[in-house]
Amino acid sequence: MVYVHIVIALALVEFFLFGWAVGRARGRYSVSAPAVTGNEMFERYLRVQMNTLEQLVIFLPAVFLFARYVSPIIAAGLGALFIVGRAIYFRAYVQDPKKRTFGFALTAFPNIALLIGGLLGALRALIG
Q: What is the spatial distance between Cα 85 and Cα 65, in angstroms, rounded to a whole number?
Protein backbone atom coordinates (compact mmCIF):
# COMPACT_ATOMS: atom_id res chain seq x y z
CA MET A 1 0.00 0.00 0.00
CA VAL A 2 2.96 2.34 0.40
CA TYR A 3 3.04 2.93 -3.38
CA VAL A 4 -0.65 3.82 -3.34
CA HIS A 5 -0.06 6.25 -0.49
CA ILE A 6 2.83 7.88 -2.36
CA VAL A 7 0.71 8.23 -5.51
CA ILE A 8 -2.15 9.77 -3.51
CA ALA A 9 0.24 12.22 -1.87
CA LEU A 10 1.67 13.16 -5.27
CA ALA A 11 -1.84 13.68 -6.69
CA LEU A 12 -2.61 16.01 -3.78
CA VAL A 13 0.68 17.88 -4.24
CA GLU A 14 -0.19 18.29 -7.92
CA PHE A 15 -3.60 19.68 -6.98
CA PHE A 16 -1.96 22.08 -4.53
CA LEU A 17 0.38 23.26 -7.30
CA PHE A 18 -2.59 23.80 -9.62
CA GLY A 19 -4.13 25.99 -6.91
CA TRP A 20 -0.87 27.87 -6.61
CA ALA A 21 -0.92 28.44 -10.38
CA VAL A 22 -4.46 29.82 -10.10
CA GLY A 23 -3.28 32.26 -7.43
CA ARG A 24 -0.39 33.39 -9.63
CA ALA A 25 -2.76 33.73 -12.60
CA ARG A 26 -5.02 35.98 -10.48
CA GLY A 27 -2.13 38.39 -10.12
CA ARG A 28 -0.82 38.05 -13.66
CA TYR A 29 -4.25 38.66 -15.25
CA SER A 30 -5.57 41.11 -12.62
CA VAL A 31 -8.53 39.04 -11.45
CA SER A 32 -9.10 40.00 -7.82
CA ALA A 33 -10.84 37.61 -5.44
CA PRO A 34 -13.66 36.72 -5.21
CA ALA A 35 -14.07 37.14 -8.99
CA VAL A 36 -13.77 33.94 -11.03
CA THR A 37 -14.27 35.53 -14.45
CA GLY A 38 -12.89 38.48 -16.33
CA ASN A 39 -9.86 37.13 -18.17
CA GLU A 40 -9.90 34.07 -20.41
CA MET A 41 -6.37 32.98 -19.49
CA PHE A 42 -7.17 33.15 -15.78
CA GLU A 43 -10.36 31.18 -16.38
CA ARG A 44 -8.35 28.43 -18.08
CA TYR A 45 -6.20 28.00 -14.99
CA LEU A 46 -9.26 27.99 -12.77
CA ARG A 47 -11.09 25.45 -14.95
CA VAL A 48 -8.11 23.08 -14.76
CA GLN A 49 -8.11 23.35 -10.98
CA MET A 50 -11.87 22.80 -10.72
CA ASN A 51 -11.87 19.90 -13.18
CA THR A 52 -9.02 18.31 -11.23
CA LEU A 53 -11.02 18.66 -8.03
CA GLU A 54 -13.97 16.97 -9.75
CA GLN A 55 -11.71 14.11 -10.85
CA LEU A 56 -10.10 13.74 -7.41
CA VAL A 57 -13.54 13.08 -5.91
CA ILE A 58 -13.63 9.90 -8.02
CA PHE A 59 -9.90 9.10 -7.95
CA LEU A 60 -9.25 9.06 -4.20
CA PRO A 61 -11.87 6.52 -3.08
CA ALA A 62 -11.49 4.50 -6.29
CA VAL A 63 -7.73 4.06 -5.88
CA PHE A 64 -8.24 2.88 -2.29
CA LEU A 65 -10.97 0.42 -3.32
CA PHE A 66 -8.91 -0.96 -6.18
CA ALA A 67 -5.82 -1.30 -3.99
CA ARG A 68 -7.80 -3.12 -1.30
CA TYR A 69 -9.75 -5.52 -3.48
CA VAL A 70 -7.63 -5.95 -6.62
CA SER A 71 -3.97 -4.93 -6.46
CA PRO A 72 -2.08 -2.12 -4.75
CA ILE A 73 0.69 -2.20 -7.39
CA ILE A 74 -1.75 -1.87 -10.30
CA ALA A 75 -3.65 0.81 -8.38
CA ALA A 76 -0.43 2.77 -7.92
CA GLY A 77 0.39 2.39 -11.62
CA LEU A 78 -3.05 3.62 -12.65
CA GLY A 79 -2.70 6.43 -10.13
CA ALA A 80 0.62 7.45 -11.65
CA LEU A 81 -1.05 7.55 -15.06
CA PHE A 82 -3.77 9.77 -13.55
CA ILE A 83 -1.12 12.21 -12.29
CA VAL A 84 0.65 12.34 -15.65
CA GLY A 85 -2.70 12.80 -17.39
CA ARG A 86 -3.57 15.72 -15.12
CA ALA A 87 -0.21 17.40 -15.86
CA ILE A 88 -0.74 16.99 -19.61
CA TYR A 89 -4.31 18.24 -19.25
CA PHE A 90 -3.10 21.30 -17.32
CA ARG A 91 -0.52 22.25 -19.91
CA ALA A 92 -2.79 21.64 -22.89
CA TYR A 93 -5.84 23.39 -21.43
CA VAL A 94 -3.91 26.51 -20.50
CA GLN A 95 -2.37 26.68 -23.99
CA ASP A 96 -5.54 25.83 -25.94
CA PRO A 97 -8.61 24.24 -24.33
CA LYS A 98 -9.40 22.41 -27.58
CA LYS A 99 -6.21 20.37 -27.13
CA ARG A 100 -7.15 18.99 -23.69
CA THR A 101 -8.54 15.66 -24.94
CA PHE A 102 -5.41 13.51 -24.61
CA GLY A 103 -4.71 14.65 -21.04
CA PHE A 104 -8.34 14.18 -20.12
CA ALA A 105 -8.31 10.64 -21.54
CA LEU A 106 -5.20 9.84 -19.48
CA THR A 107 -7.20 10.91 -16.44
CA ALA A 108 -10.54 9.33 -17.33
CA PHE A 109 -9.16 5.89 -18.22
CA PRO A 110 -7.46 5.32 -14.84
CA ASN A 111 -10.50 6.65 -12.99
CA ILE A 112 -12.87 4.32 -14.84
CA ALA A 113 -10.54 1.34 -14.40
CA LEU A 114 -10.03 2.05 -10.69
CA LEU A 115 -13.73 2.56 -10.05
CA ILE A 116 -14.98 -0.48 -11.96
CA GLY A 117 -12.16 -2.68 -10.64
CA GLY A 118 -12.74 -1.55 -7.07
CA LEU A 119 -16.48 -2.11 -7.31
CA LEU A 120 -16.13 -5.55 -8.89
CA GLY A 121 -13.48 -6.51 -6.38
CA ALA A 122 -15.69 -5.46 -3.47
CA LEU A 123 -18.66 -7.35 -4.93
CA ARG A 124 -16.48 -10.45 -5.39
CA ALA A 125 -15.39 -10.21 -1.75
CA LEU A 126 -19.01 -9.86 -0.66
CA ILE A 127 -20.18 -12.89 -2.66
CA GLY A 128 -17.24 -14.92 -1.48
A: 20
